[in-house]
Structure formats: structure tokens, C-alpha cells
Amino acid sequence: MIPVARVHSHATSLPALLVSAVGVVAIVLLAHVAPPAYVALLLAAIGAGLLVLRHPWLAGVLLVASVPVQQVGAVGAGGASLTATRICLLVALAAAIIRWSALAQPVILHRGLALYACFLLVLLLSVHGATNVSAGISELARWCIAFVAFGCFLQWCDPARPMHVVMLAGAVVAATAAEALYGLFQSVRAVGPESFVIGGGVTRAFGTFGRPNTFAGFLEFGPFLAAALGLYFAMRTTTALRLYRQIRLQGFVAATPARRRLFWLVALMVAFFASGSLAFLGIVASFSRGAWVGVAGGILAFALLYGPRTRLLTLLAIPLVIVVVASGLLARLPGSLEERVVSISDVARPFDASSIPITDENFAAVERMAHWQAGWRMFKDHPILGVGPGNFNTLYPSYYVREEFRFSQGHAHNYYIHLLAETGILGLVAYLTLLGFFLFLGLRIVIACVEPLPRAIALGCTVTLVSLSIHNLFENLHVLNLSIMYSSLFCLLVASHRMWRGSGTSACFAAGENVEYSANEHS
User: Fold this and answer.
1) Is 419 helix (H, G, I), strand (E, B) or coil?
2) Does the predicted TM-score (pTM) go above 0.90?
């Protein structure tokens, strides 16, 4: 009888050979007519495609890793920019189609796809009445990319193989850590325009995104997921250490598997904690007040959801925090940091931007509020479907509230107002339904699940969505393909839910141990 492994090998080699054959022909043809950059891109895409066919989980990892470097090596193609993210998405989609057709793999669906599709339908309806249709189509295309990415993530993130789910979560965390490291280098070396200078030879970190607020928004995808998984692996490390101490008495050779398991658990724990810390420091170095408020809300949510003891300690600590703020202890912070923290109230407090006197101290707050008011005026004139996706800038000259801010900064500085302005009440409801569905799914897992791994992933993703939702009150965190990062969180929540329903999937890290687990162990 033919071994099963050999049958699988022949099955997977056929699409790989087809891809290789097509790739060789394409390279030969392109080498004669196309610039070297296109040939290099094709070679990279084919190589990535073959890797994804051999290791499907790499599709999600590559797609997430491409977001912070999407503009590196980008080339023009037919009037559009061919970025690293788009290439990775095409590779993932092509690999998925090959696996569906050549390998007869099932197409994995989820209710979240239907909610995503409803939001896209509202965007499409809104494009119909847009003044600048091309801008509307471009915005719709960006959301379609996020939709396709979510579908691809679902195909590769196999709940039956928890390590693949952890690899996707690890890719999200590692991408934010690498971006944070680059941003911290910029900050301490005072790299950046004069407007980013904070003082003392330090500038606001902006990373590869070019803007501190967007940079900080990207980094927010990392710390809470890293903390949740770091704590999970810390718990597993404690159990594995106890087991190793028992087994090592049987001799060095007998303890080798337990020692290797302990090493990898410690390595994963340290990697997640270190990556999360880097992302957090990067957010601090961005001096983004919106991100600071979002992270503060995320920390509060994490503490309340982690376990009964942390919930109790948090409720007891809230009055102490209020006393610290009220007593003026913030004045002991470094000057630039204190000024930034104190000015947070100016960002959140609504006022009439059309009449308030402008000073150097309140300029940013007034500019932000002016964009809020312009977006609200657009919504009042177009309440059902808005002015059209991507049309905020086009219509802004007709809605600005004062001459000093007659030029749009690109968005309304509040994604919910921005969405109301561009897609009306239908767009906002569709978006909040999509976001609320996954928040509710995450909360359900965190509250009811007793399996450690799916609960940890759900906790990290849910708190991250809370943090981002708060930050979106002051920013638009759906620019520059950040919606793909949202899709990765949605997929991780779906995977953790299926792991929970499948039960016992955490055993791959428990190494066969029958470990009793309850929510109280989180405290």
C-alpha cells in the first residue's frame, strides 16, 4: 500500500510544478520586454507562492509583514502602484485558488464575511452618488483588499493546528516590534522634519508610515496580543519547568524532550514580552495623544477582563489614579511628556472651532475640531449615504469652518465622523455592526472559555480592538492598508472561537499534560 505521506507529496507537487512552469515562461518573456524591477518582483512572487503552497500558514505571515514595508520597492503598473502588500495578497489568493482547485481543499467561510460584504455593498452604493468617482472606487478597492485578506486568512489559519494560529499572532506582534524599533531609532537620533521635534534632541517617531499618529496606530496591534500570549506561555513555562524537574531525575537523555520543550516555551515567552514592550515604547515615542488614550483604555480593558483578581485590583486602583491626576503629580513628568499628557483634555473636549482664538498651544486641537465640524456638516447635508467614499477631501473646500483651515488634512481626525461624512448613517451602522460582531465574539470567548490558548488569543485581540476603537475617535486607522491588520485580528478571533469549540487544542503546548485550567489562574 502506498504511504499516505507520499500521496500528499505527489498532490502538492503538481500545483508547484504548474506554478514553476508558468513562472519560467513568464520570466523568459518579461526578461526581453520589461524593466529588471518587474522581473525581480515576479521572481519574488513566484518564490513566495511556492513557499505558501508548501507552508500555507506563511501566507498570513507574509501579508501581515508586508504592511509596514508596503511602499518599499513599489513600482507603477498601469497607473496604479504595485506595492509589497498587494503582491503578497495576490500570492496568497493565487495559492488559495490552486489549493481549492488542484488539491480539492474546502473553502472555509464565516459569518464575518457576510458582514464585511454588507459594508462593501454600502460603500458601493455610496460611490454611485460621489462627486469624485475615481476616489470613491479607490477607497472601495482598499476595503475590498481587506475583505479578500480576511478570506485568505481564514483559509490558512487552521484551528486544528494551534501553532499556525500562534504564528499568525506572532507575525502581527513581530511586525509591530520591528516597526517600533525603527521608530525608536528615528526618535533618539532626531530623524524627521522640524515639526516633529519635541525637545532635548528627541523627535516624534513616525516609522515607515511617515506620520506619528498612523505609526502609533499600527503599533497598537501588538502590545496587548503580546501581553496575553506572553502570559499564556509564562503559565505553560511554569508547568513545563515543574515537569522537567521531575523527569530530569531519570537521567540526562530521558529529560531531553522535556528540556527542549522548556527551552521553546521560555523563548516564546521572552519573545512575546520583548516584542510587546518594544511596541509600547514605540507608541510612547510617537507622542500621539490619541494613541495614548487608546492604549490607556486598552490597559483598563485588559485588567478588567484578565481575571477576577486583576479586575478587583483595577477597580480599587481607579480612585488612586484620580487622586494622582488631581494632586498635580503629573507635573513631575519630563516637560515635553507632561505637556503632551495634560493637553489630552484639549483633544477630547468639544468646542466651536469657528470662533475660538487660535494660539500656538491650541492650534492642533482647533484644527482637529475644525475637521470634526466639517465632517459633521457633510453628514447633515448627505445623511443616508454620505458624500461618497474617499470624497472627504474633494468636498472639504465647501464645508471648512474657518479660513485658517481651508485645506483638508486628509480625514476628519475622527473615523466615525469621517465615515458618517463619506458613507452616511448606513455606512456607520454597517461598520459598527462588523466591528461589534467581532468584539462580542471576543468577549464571549474571554468570559466563557476555559481553554488557555484560545482565551489568551481572544483576550489580546478583543482588547486591541477596544484600544483601536478609542484611538479612532481622534484618527483614521484604516489608511495605508491597516484594515488588513484588522482582518488578521478578526481571523484570530474566529480561529480562537473554533479552537474553543473544538476543545483541547491547547494540548500541543501542554505536551500531553493533563493541566486543569480555570479563569482564576489568570489572576
Assistant:
1) helix
2) no
Q: Which of 105, 65, 167, 60 is nearest to 508 (CA)?
A: 167
**In the block, residue with C-alpha cell 500528499:** 8
Which residues on neighbouring strands pair with residue 199, listed in sequence order? 202
User: Cα–Cα distance between 467 and 305 in angstroms, integer?
Assistant: 14
Backbone angles phi, psi at 199, to 5 degrees: 130, 160
Question: Grid coordinates in use for 510?
Answer: 501542554
Separation of alpha carbons 179 and 210, rounded Å: 12
Q: What are the residue ranges spanned by the domains of the chain? A: 9-107, 108-522
Burial annotation 350-385 (CB, 10 A radius, 16+ → b, else e) = eeebeeeeeeeebeebbbbbbbbbbbbbbbeebeeb
How far apart (Å, rounded) are the C-alpha atoms in residues 479 and 434? 18
Whether residue 321 contacts residue 340, with contact meaning beta carbons closer than 8 Å, is answered with: no
77 pLDDT more than 70: no
Beta carbons within 8 Å of 35's beta carbon, 6+ residues apart: none
Rounded to a whole number, what is the largest CA-CA distance in the chain?
Answer: 85
Residues 506-518 pLDDT 10s? 444 443 343 333 3
**Count of CB atoms situated within 10 Å of the CB of 331:** 9
Confidence of residue 27 (pLDDT cuts 50, 70, 90): low
In the three-class reduction of DSSP (H, G, I as helix; E, B as strand; rest coil), residue 93 is classed as helix
Condensed to tens digits (0 to 9), the pLDDT of residues 296-348 reads 999 999 999 999 999 999 999 888 877 766 665 555 556 555 566 655 656 66
Strand, helix or coil at 416?
helix
The cell numbers describing 344, all together, are 489630552
According to DSSP, the β-strands at 197-199 and 202-203 are antiparallel
Task: Give dist(CA 17, CA 40) in Å, integer.
Answer: 20
Strands 80-82 and 197-199: unpaired
Residue-wise DSSP of 320-341: HHHHHHHTTGGGGS-HHHHHHH
On the CB side of 444, CA atoms within 13 Å amount to 13
**Under a CB-based contact definition with an 8 Å cutoff, are residues 440 and 209 in contact?**
no
DSSP summary character for residue 105 = P
> In this structure, what are the phi and psi dihedrals at residue 407, rounded to the nearest 5 degrees?
-105, 130
Give the span between the Cα atoms of 432 and 447, in whole angstroms: 22
Yes or no: say if 288 and 280 are a contact pair by the CB < 8 Å rule: no
Span 79-118, pLDDT tens digits: 566 788 888 888 888 878 877 877 777 889 999 999 999 9
Which pLDDT belongs to residue 255? 86
Q: Is the four-CA dihedral 131, 417, 292, 176 of positive or negative sign?
A: negative
